[in-house]
Write a structure and sequence with these properties.
- The complex is a heterodimer.
- A seven-stranded parallel sheet of chain A has the order 3-2-1-4-5-6-7, sandwiched between helices.
- Chain A has nine helices and seven strands.
- Chain A is an alpha/beta fold.
- Chain B is mainly α.
- In chain B, α1 crosses α4.
- Chain B is globular, with a radius of gyration of 12 Å.
- The chains are: A alpha/beta, B mainly alpha.
- Chains A and B meet through loops of A and α2 and α3 of B.
């Protein structure tokens, strides 16, 4: 069998980077999407033995160009991990419209653009895996995250519906919901805030990006071919 | 209205609207941050204040950027009210 080709959006940093690493270690040909930070992307490319591809995933034209380039080069695309996401937290009553729209564009619209562009080669090959990274906010809600929770809740419903559309073609569509994970973002957290978060997590600690990558790897495996339209929480019991 | 008087009025309004029943106006430091500081208020309490200020002074706090400026302290809030009230 030929080497599988994977695209990880937001794949050069944080959780995305660990997912890229896990797939690369499995011998897959990994394309790591990034949008802004070329320096981090270059570093990831060298370290992880994977390709980097630049595109703003909230822009359909850029997404289409990125994915058709990959398909031209590789003649296939087997795996898509929709990981890119942003937060613009704030209480709804005071939320500027641009913070609502930007979060929906980057977190939800991107999943439509990327999945749509990636599906054709998967259908043609009768094999494919799409993993969407969601959040406990989608499952239980979180004050200050109406925009983020709506985007991730939208992605979860998208996951369930697309799973039903493409199951016949050997394509599975699932979601992974990481809880609070140690990344650059959480490393800047104040100790007080950190302890407050930890007190709500039954496992008593934050998760690691590797633990999220493990769950993603499992859902991408051949053995998980009968699991579709599901979400898997990696959150230490939070939800 | 003079600012000093407004500061005292705002302290009373904060205590009343946010039901800080065990506090009196002198307990509130006019220079200290209103939220995330010593008063034990969180950002969700700000919504109560937003509608209270609108009702009392006719001032509007449209978004979080303005909110951050206005709620930096009671002094900052007084300045904001003086500048914007009808």
């Amino acid at each position: 069998m030929s080497v599988r080709v994977a695209l990880v959006t937001g794949g050069t940093k944080g959780i995305g980077r660990e997912i890229s690493r896990a797939l690369s270690l499995k011998g897959m040909r990994v394309y790591m999407n990034f949008s802004g930070d070329l320096q981090a992307a270059e570093a990831a490319r060298q370290e992880l033995n994977a390709e980097i591809v630049r595109a703003d995933v909230s822009d359909q034209e850029q997404v289409n160009a990125m994915i058709s380039d990959i398909i031209k080069k590789e003649d296939r695309l087997d795996i898509l991990v929709n990981n890119a996401g942003i937060i613009r937290d704030g209480l709804l009553m005071l939320m500027p419209a641009q913070n609502w729209h930007r979060v929906i564009e980057v977190n939800l619209n991107s999943v439509y653009y990327c999945s749509k562009a990636a599906l054709r080669p998967m259908v043609a090959n009768r094999w494919g895996r799409i993993i969407n990274i969601i959040s406990p906010s989608a499952l239980m809600g979180r004050a200050g995250q109406t925009n983020y929770a709506a985007s991730k809740g939208g992605v979860l419903s998208f996951t369930r519906s697309l799973a039903r559309e493409v199951a016949r073609y050997g394509i599975t569509v699932n979601a992974v919901s990481p809880g609070v994970i140690e990344t650059e973002l959480t490393s800047t957290m104040e100790e007080k805030v950190r302890q407050e978060f930890i007190s709500k997590i039954p496992a008593g600690r934050f998760g690691t990006p590797e633990e999220v990558a493990r769950a993603v790897s499992f859902l991408l495996s051949d053995g998980a071919g009968y699991i579709t339209g599901e979400y898997l929480s990696v959150d230490g019991g939070l939800t | 209205m003079e600012k000093d008087a407004l500061v005292e009025e705002l302290k009373a309004l904060i205590i009343k609207n946010l039901k800080l029943e065990d506090m009196t106006p002198p307990d509130i430091d006019a220079a200290a941050p209103l939220f995330g500081g010593g008063l034990g208020l969180d950002s969700i309490d700000a919504l109560e204040l937003v509608v209270g200020l609108e009702k009392t002074y006719g001032i509007r706090i449209p978004d979080e950027d303005v909110g951050k400026e206005a709620f930096a302290s009671v002094n900052a809030l007084a300045d904001y009210v003086l500048k914007n009230k009808n």
